[in-house]
Description:
By secondary structure, this protein is mainly beta. The chain contains 1 helix and 6 strands. The protein has one helix at 10-20; strands at 24-37, 42-60, 82-87, 99-104, 114-117, 130-136. It has a 6-stranded antiparallel beta barrel with strand order 1-2-3-6-5-4.
Amino acid sequence: MTTEAEGLTLGAVSDLVERKILTDIVRIFRPGEPVFNEETGMYDPGPDVVIYNGPGAIFPDSGPGIVLHLEGQAHVDDSASQYKLHTPLSAPLASRGDTVELTKAADLAALGRTWRVLDLGQTSTLAVVRTTFLDQNTQAVTP
């Protein structure tokens, strides 16, 4: 006699994580094409290209290890402020250099902070969310 194993499916776990953990709203964007300004004769930054605006969560974390060059200098992307962005698997992949902004969060001190995407999101056979390594941009606190 056989019995079927009962338990959660990956889809059910993903749904639970999205409802209970991905409760902030994040915006992932990159600079748009420059626009020629006829008055100044210069190019101005174009409007941002938003690639994702939706549920997510940002957690402090350690990221990829330090990479040393032969001459002993730290790799250009080494960061002291490593974070991870978690988004639904349905969210598009962010590219290296994209910007992530927290636009809605329970922690008001986190609103408006931005991070730089260090690399494409991680992949896994058993993924329930998309995970992307970030480096927090320099922030200034005003009194």
